[in-house]
Task: structure prediction
Amino acid sequence: MKIRKSLTSLLSLTLLLSPLNVVLAEGSIDTDTTKNEINKNIEINIDSSITGNEREVIADVMARLDEEDRENVIYVTEDGAIYSNKIELKATTEIYDLVDNNTYQSPTGKELVGPGIPTDAFSVPPVSDNTLISPTAESPSPIGGSGPYRRVFSNNGYNWLSTYVTIPGAPYVTGKVTTDTPYVYLGGWGSNGNGIDAGLQYSTAFDNWAPTTLANGSMVPSNTRYRSGQDIYMKFYVTNPNECTLAVSGITTSGDQLTTTIVRSGVSGWDKSGTGMRVKRMTTIGQKPENMNTGSYIKNVRWHDITLGYYSGSNLIYSSWGSGQTGGYHSVPADKVSVNYISPGEETVNIQL
Result:
């Protein structure tokens, strides 16, 4: 389900009447007609040349997705098998495994610098008295070692997150050295502390952004590129036990309005309940090695219209991101990260090295 701006702008008013919003799952209207419509929607989005078991696998995955996320789907199994509903997408998708500190390499030898923060970096130290943070919050430690970042994370109990984010382009973002890579992304930690990152990676060379995910020690980017300087809609949610999904919607470099979806399985600690889980949003410059004086920067990253939620049975329970949902904030290092803070659900981030 996509929470559109027209809806999220009314959430504050709605929440005065009801603290939570409920969206009924497609499966709650269990009729043959509805099932046939869903199957038809799935089939028309799968290339006709994809047949047999491969078609069955991707069709099953797409059935678990929100309808608007079935356009261009990449599915990666726990053992590294890649499936897609588009032949071209599968052909251009590679898995990048961790080979060195914050460096990931594909089977063809291509390298990526990761977003910089270990996905499983989570602990429960005492929480300082901060009126912007819920008194029951448990905080992942603010650590460094592979680049600067701004992190906002939720309390326990959430596994669904959507946002609009303004992704800058030149001259407001650049990696001054080839190993400095700006990112904006969502994700979080499962009930066992297992993390996942899911969002967008910037290319200084081409001034565009690519959807990417990091889980279980491997990165899976999409070859689809989105224009800089636009409002992108991103959504992160659980689609099955130990299965997390990223959906990115915006205008590509070819001028098309497109949704790209990456589904990662084998991400332990995640399920529909949201119990013991938390979500996050991040603005980072991934580095190898860390050097806070390279001159790289990312500016004017505006996060807004942010919604988070969890599932009750098959129904999504969601609300605007407010102080009651907030676990905490980290700006690391504080002298390199500046924030124009409006509310827990809206801020503009700048990182200047």
In short: The chain is about 10% helix and 45% strand.
